[in-house]
Amino acid sequence: MTKTVQLHSYALSRRSFLITAGSLGVAVAFGGLLRDASGAAVAPAVKGNYRPNAWVTIAGDGMVTIMSPASEMGQGIMTTLPLLIAEDMDADWDSVRIVQAPSDAESYGNPGFYGIQLTGGSESTRGYYDLLRLIGAQTRKVILASGADMLNVPVSELATETSRVVHAQSGRSLSFGEIAANGALPDPLPQATEADLKPSDQWRYIGRRDIPRVDVPSKVDGTAIYGMDVQLPDMLYGAVLRAPVQGERPEVIDDAEARAVSGVTHIVPLSYGVGIIGETVEATTRAKDLLNVTWSTSSRVRAYTSDRLLEQYRSVGRDLSQAGVEAFAESDAEAAVTGAATVIEADYMSDLVYHATMEPMNATALVTGDTVEIWAPTQGPTGTQGFAAEVVGTTPDKVKVNTTLLGGGFGRKAEADFIVDAVSLAREAEGRPVKVIWSREDDVRHDKFRPLEAQHIQVGLDDDGNIVGWRHRIVADSIFARTMPDLFESQGGHDDVVTEGAHFNYAVPAHRIDYIRQNNGLDIGFWFAVGVGYTRFGIECVLDEVAAAKGADPVQLRLELLRDQPRARKVVETVAKMAEWDRERDGRAVGVAYSDAFGTHCAQVAEVSLNLQTGMIRVHKVWCAVDPGVAIQPLHIEGMMIVGITNGTSHALFEQINIIDGEVQEGNFDTYRVIRMSEAPDIEVAVVPTLGSPVGGMGQVGLPPVGPAIANAVARLTGGVRLRHYPFLPERVLEALNA
């Protein structure tokens, strides 16, 4: 039958409006499913009743259970954060069990994210580091106080070894398990300060290379539970047909054939699409294909054609009369550039990019009356609780979020759209859980892409080729305007994620950054090293142009501009030595780039060759030196650098989303090109920590330098041909060669 759709009507808050409009906001959400280090689900009750705080529970058998507050999406955070607690409480790591913290921002919120539970922005270690070490120190003081009471000695006479309290004068000792079984928590509980933290020369775990990640065994033997693995009794399956153009709504739905599919139980009109619920995945997929929907034609996104808009963005960047929002200003950069002896001007552009998580978007939801339970691979469940509550018409405290392992996140799984799908359909099948799994085509075409952007950079040089002024104009849509509108407005229309990385630590006397927002209706979102991934592309490539104009070596120019930055100089000098920077290479060349994003210093050198007939670039090797301040797990850091460099090479050479008249042209990995194993470069990483420095973020650090290092290597190989448009497709390379 054919019918005109009567959409559900709800009282809308500002946030829920984003849902009905199809511009689903970021779910700042996290929590739920207790899980041991192997990935197997465990009972909600943590074994043991000696609980010094919300983070640690000790059982009578000595097992120490530590909560992990961040979402594990392959970055190893389920090991790193609990390790900090274990270090300062002197727990035996072999007797530690790690479980996923429940969704409780008051107890487990990240200080780096204003106390909410959110995994992203390379902020987990930075945000939790001080807190979790203090939690460990406080736990140790509680245990010592209990031990002192049991041994009837002053607490000042006690010390801890691995999971044991020792009274050296009498030779007596108590295990943590004995204290948990027979001791009482002191009242009041002692508190800890920085003075109680272990000095670095006493660390047992921090800095060791031989502590394996706790999530790996279950991923090897197949017992790990990702969102797609969730199985519940009496479960139904769901799918959602979305409009080919974002922002359109179903106006007429012909669902006669879809309803006739065996196993289909519900066809659900939604404000942004049509939902199907059925007994099997196959039934919902078949019914989805048989739906005949007439969509509205009023979305602004219908005017969105990415190639045309990118040229428009470049024109806006060049037009200095079009003012933007001042993101940073030091001295009068405009006057310095205008009065310079020489001005280098360059435009740098980046296409839309897909997240390409191996696990597509999925979630499972159960609605029972005014309560909701969700199982999802989410990067965060405070916001998820809020969005789900608004869909159902309940309150966030009645929404429970169980966070599973994530098969990749990259910022995409901080969004709520896939979770809203599951909750919306579960509302229609009340009392039965509904699992929604997006197809890869849905995942590609309805992603929240990294923004399309153009940069215009002007660098003024004096007669000796020294930089006297730097102007940087960034033209792109805003992520915050959609996801955090109040923050966006409070910052005067500035989006510091979109412009992230543009503020550098090079010694430039006059520096200005402007953000010129474009608003063409398309949802864009957080991505792996969002802004810094393209701002450093522009900055590091322009620096090589400055070096060429000055007749200076690119490494030496950076060292000169980093003269007051010893940690930065260290990584640049280290990577140059690793790569034998000055060595002659037959048919190949090397390029260098540096980044201080996320509080971590990282320098890379890429060695490339170029096929002058096809325009194909081959990246043979990348050397990387990284200083994270405190290197909590050096081997793990090396792994994250390899991931970031591989991902960065892929996005620099291949990855792009094309939109024509609002419709995404790519649909799967046959049309969305990613790097292949045979194309991945050899990678060599040196971790060069600086004790005493603040701990830096690590998750996204490896990506920003690799693209500009590749471009700079191509320039040296070709006598100065500059690549200024991500990705470096062969046809673009040939165009640059022939310009």
UniProtKB/TrEMBL annotation:
Residues 221-299 form the Aldehyde oxidase/xanthine dehydrogenase a/b hammerhead domain. SUPFAM superfamilies: Molybdenum cofactor-binding domain. Gene3D superfamilies: Aldehyde oxidase/xanthine dehydrogenase, a/b hammerhead, Aldehyde oxidase/xanthine dehydrogenase, molybdopterin binding domain. InterPro entries: Ald_Oxase/Xan_DH_a/b, AldOxase/xan_DH_MoCoBD1, AldOxase/xan_DH_MoCoBD2, AldOxase/xan_DH_Mopterin-bd_sf, N-heterocyclic_Hydroxylase, OxRdtase_Mopterin-bd_su_IorB, TAT_signal. It comes from the Bacteria. This is Molybdopterin-dependent oxidoreductase. It comes from Chelativorans salis.
